[in-house]
């Protein structure tokens, strides 16, 4: 039986917009999502899991079920309704109370400053494509470091790559732009610069605690041994993984990576322009990250592809409906021998192991890793108060075993945050893609532990993966 370390964190993960609801309460400012979702008309971010009011219940559940860390994000627009200017006392008081309750219940808060929810006022001015907004983010971060001194674990951003691609490639996040690789690359770079600047401010001011960034890293494999498919996987890896890890841990981009970017730009008629001064900031930060947060759910098998760009995002759970073909980079292939969820996410725990050992090998000064998200979206069935989510337990068992193997092989992983603590609102899937340890009846907001919650409690108590 595989074990996890004695002082491991068995956490649960959430995000403000997906959990809190109350999008117009107590002076919260608007975010671009409010209007975007309304226009789409598919689902509403209210009430979500009503964490804005239910947090005492959720935090008590954490304590009861051995969840000793809670990953959550601060909604920037609850603190600064327009992103800059006068802070909102009610938003500040709310988060102080959330953190206080966590601490009182032996649940360590791990706080992300930005989880897909830039205030609308700044978003409308170009979000992170607008360099002025980097200043606004850094000022907001500094305010939080000085205000929320009870927090000791900070992440700057959640998932820079999905921000850039969902906003400017897939178009499933506001502003809904498709296939604009210039914007994708500049968004990636600018957010990494904002991360570096924030880390440097945190360290220069000697704020207590630790700081890092959360990257979504989905391992890429060639679908065959052909040189073309191997190259396709190399290109996908370059833009979605190496770009972020080089920016984080080298503070610059290697020539090899820039050559891959140039190839992508040539195929996609795109360009980029990075400022020399940015590299100074990034290099300074590159040895100051206390941890790397990794969100990992799935991996991709890549096949060389030249043809029209074509992406269909499976946001309904209709298995087999996903399409991903990007000219000059890759087509993603679903293999019949690898199981996948109803949303076409491949269940391949080897991808987690390979990713972890690669980070240790390629970036030996990485210090520490937290798995900040991993879990299985599933159409849970509620029968007489019982939720038998056996496929989820099976998924968790496999991925945690891969993490345990990586730890045995010398990778320093110190915690795991299961996505999600309770069922949440999913940005592009709404409410039927459930991930929680706790089932949420979205009508009554009552919580019910799933079978996986009991399994996780036992894991947290015994550190043994059964
Ligand atoms: C991560 C995000 O990408 O994956 C979460 O950080 C998100 O916000 C989670 O909800 C699961 O994705 P989805 O699309 O299934 O909700």
From TrEMBL:
Please name the GO terms of the biological process aspect recorded for this protein, alphabetically. Answer: lactose catabolic process via tagatose-6-phosphate
Is this entry keyworded Transport? Answer: no
EC identifiers of the protein: 3.2.1.85
Any GO MF annotation of the entry: beta-glucosidase activity
Tell me where on the tree of life, at the top rank, the source sits. Answer: Bacteria
Which GO CC terms are listed, alphabetically? cytosol
Pathway info = Carbohydrate metabolism; lactose degradation; D-galactose 6-phosphate and beta-D-glucose from lactose 6-phosphate: step 1/1
Q: What are the entry keywords?
A: Glycosidase, Hydrolase
Classification via InterPro entries: 6P-beta-galactosidase, GH, GH_1_N_CS, Glyco_hydro_1, Glyco_hydro_1_AS
- Active site annotated at which positions? 373 (nucleophile)
Catalysed reaction per UniProt? a 6-phospho-beta-D-galactoside + H2O = D-galactose 6-phosphate + an alcohol
* Pfam families documented for this protein: Glyco_hydro_1 (PF00232)
- NCBIfam families (alphabetical): lacG, PRK13511.1
Its family remark reads:
Belongs to the glycosyl hydrolase 1 family.
User: What's this protein's name?
Assistant: 6-phospho-beta-galactosidase
Q: Which gene encodes it?
A: lacG
């Amino acid at each position: 039986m595989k074990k996890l370390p004695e002082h491991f964190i068995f956490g649960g993960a959430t995000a403000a917009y997906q959990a809190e609801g109350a999008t117009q309460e107590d002076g919260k400012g608007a975010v671009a999502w409010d209007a975007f979702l309304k226009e789409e008309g598919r689902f509403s971010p209210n009430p979500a899991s009503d964490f804005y009011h239910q947090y005492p219940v959720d935090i008590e559940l954490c304590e009861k079920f051995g969840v000793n860390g809670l990953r959550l994000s601060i909604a920037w627009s609850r603190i600064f309704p327009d992103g800059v200017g006068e802070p909102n006392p009610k938003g500040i008081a709310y988060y102080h109370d959330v953190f206080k309750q966590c601490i009182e219940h032996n649940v360590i808060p791990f706080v992300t400053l930005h989880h897909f929810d830039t205030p609308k006022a700044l978003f409308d001015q170009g979000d992170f494509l607008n360099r002025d907004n980097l200043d606004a983010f850094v000022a907001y971060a500094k305010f939080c470091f000085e205000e929320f001194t009870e927090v000791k674990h900070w992440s700057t951003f959640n998932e820079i790559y999905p921000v850039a691609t969902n906003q400017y490639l897939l178009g499933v996040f506001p502003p809904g732009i498709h296939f604009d690789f210039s914007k994708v690359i500049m968004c990636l770079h600018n957010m990494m610069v904002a991360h570096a600047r924030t880390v440097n401010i945190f360290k220069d001011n000697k704020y207590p605690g630790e700081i890092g960034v959360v990257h979504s890293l989905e391992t890429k494999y060639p679908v065959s041994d052909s040189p073309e498919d191997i190259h396709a996987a190399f290109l996908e890896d370059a833009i979605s993984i190496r770009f972020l890890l080089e920016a984080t841990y080298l503070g610059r981009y290697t020539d090899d990576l820039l050559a891959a970017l140039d190839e992508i730009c040539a195929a996609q008629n795109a360009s980029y322009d990075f400022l020399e001064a940015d590299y100074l900031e990034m290099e300074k930060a590159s040895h100051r990250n206390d941890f790397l947060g990794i969100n990992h759910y799935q991996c991709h098998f890549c096949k060389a592809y030249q043809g029209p760009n074509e992406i269909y995002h499976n946001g309904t759970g209709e298995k087999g409906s996903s399409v991903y073909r990007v000219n000059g980079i890759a087509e993603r292939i679903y293999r019949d021998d690898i199981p996948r969820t109803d949303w076409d996410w491949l269940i391949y725990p080897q991808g987690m192991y390979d990713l972890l050992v690669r980070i240790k090998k390629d970036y030996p000064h990485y210090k520490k890793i937290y798995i900040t998200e991993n879990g299985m979206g599933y159409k849970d069935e509620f029968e007489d108060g019982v939720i038998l989510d056996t496929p989820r337990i099976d998924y968790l068992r496999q991925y945690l075993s891969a993490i345990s193997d990586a730890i045995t092989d010398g990778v320093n992983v110190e915690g795991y945050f299961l996505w999600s603590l309770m069922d949440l609102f999913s940005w592009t899937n709404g409410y039927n893609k459930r991930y929680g340890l706790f089932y949420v009846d979205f009508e009554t907001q009552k919580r019910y532990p799933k079978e996986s919650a009991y399994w996780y409690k036992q894991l947290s108590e015994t550190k043994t993966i059964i």
